[in-house]
Amino acid sequence: MTAVEITFLGTGSGAPSRARNVSATALHLPQRGEWWLIDCGEGTQHQILRASHIRLSQLTRIFLTHLHGDHLFGLPGLLASRALAQGGVGPVTIYGPEGVEVWLKATLRAAGMRFGFPVNIVTVKPGVVCTDGEFTVMAAPVRHRIEAYGYAVQEAEQTGRFEVEAAAALGIPPGPLYGQLKAGKSVTLADGRVIEGASLVGPTRPGRCIVFSGDTGPAPELVLLAQGADLLIHEATYSEQDRSLADRAAHATATIAAEAARDAGVHALLLTHFSARYEGGESEVNLETLLTEARTIFPETRLAHDLLRVSVPRREQ
Ligand SMILES: [Zn+2]
Ligand SMILES: [Zn+2]
Fold first, then answer.
1. Residue 81 and residue 31 share a domain
2. Catalytic residue among 70, 215, 230, 306
């Protein structure tokens, strides 16, 4: 079974603070020897050096939610270092809104830069962004000041578990017969009994689903995208007490994020992209206030912090 692990590389909004870098999140698939990056704020490559379990050379896909600098400006440096410092030669595909290609190519040209590995750029539209048989990534438009997308990473359905104990109890000898039964075929035993494979295979299990909101105000499209997800990673730049700031900048409050989690019926919510105004102790509101605010609406809420690692286990039914 492929493990899925999330590592937060930057959990602050706008500009880096001493405690938090700007937006970037890694989705690590260790058995596949690869990981994906969602957004790439400036300094993301430094954060990757601090997260020793992920290597730049194993990065294969980058999903950009939108083109604000705090989600984008780390990209040229990170790509430049991939081959230079870590010998990454495999291709990287970048998915993002219209404009990524023009911006990146202009930067490359101006700097006389080459990456040393193929870089593919795909312009995102709502719907399926990419699929590899095991995972499908879907995008939905969200509500921000510029074109912005939320992404869902959906694992394919898993075949049911083969009930080894039940097979043994029926006196079926372990070996090739197990393989046929597992595949749902019917098998005739040496003593003439016919065993239906389907009777020994448990129900199909849903794949895992992880959703990334990017920057957004209240967005019904995101709630639809996140229906029943195992984990929703949602921005919560502000507290509801600063709702006017959130509305002005098309950002979420902890309340908006928790309402999205509740309405989508997700299993867990992780808040990120916090305003630095709640860190310094100048405001009466702090991050604990945001957590309490969200938990009132959606109890399964946690706050992300830089370098937090969270594994997403498969749900048992
Ligand atoms: Zn942002
Ligand atoms: Zn933004």
1. yes
2. 70
Q: Report the number of distinct structural domains present in the chain.
A: 2
E strands, the chain, where?
Answer: 5-10, 24-29, 34-38, 59-63, 92-96, 119-123, 127-131, 135-141, 149-155, 186-188, 194-196, 209-212, 231-235, 269-272, 301-303, 309-311
Cα torsion angle, 201, 204, 205, 208, sign: positive
Query: Is 110 in the same domain as 128?
Result: yes
| Structural domain boundaries, residue 191 | 164-200
Q: Is 70 a catalytic residue?
A: yes
5 closest CA partner among 43, 32, 23, 41: 32
Percentage of the chain exceeding pLDDT 70: 99
Candidate ranges 104-113, 151-160, 213-222; pick with highest mean pLDDT: 213-222
> What ligand is nearest to the CA atom of residue 41?
1
pLDDT of residue 317: 56
Full DSSP string of 20-39:
--SSEEEEEEGGGTEEEEE-
| 316: in domain | no
Strand 209-212 to strand 5-10: parallel, antiparallel, or no bridges (unpaired)? unpaired
Cα of 232 from ligand 2 centre, angstroms = 18
Residue among 174, 163, 311 at smallest CA distance from 231: 311
45 and 168 inside one domain: no
Cα 237 to middle of ligand 1, angstroms: 8
Shared domain for 247 and 288, answered yes or no, is: yes
SS (H, E, C) 288-308: HHHHHHHHHHCCCEEECCCCC
Tell me: do 22 and 42 sit in the same domain: yes
Q: Tens digits of per-residue pLDDT, 238-289?
A: 999 999 999 999 999 999 999 999 999 999 999 999 999 998 777 789 999 9
Rounded to whole angstroms, the Cα distance separating 177 from 139 reads 43
Q: Strands, DSSP E only, in 21-91?
A: 24-29, 34-38, 59-63
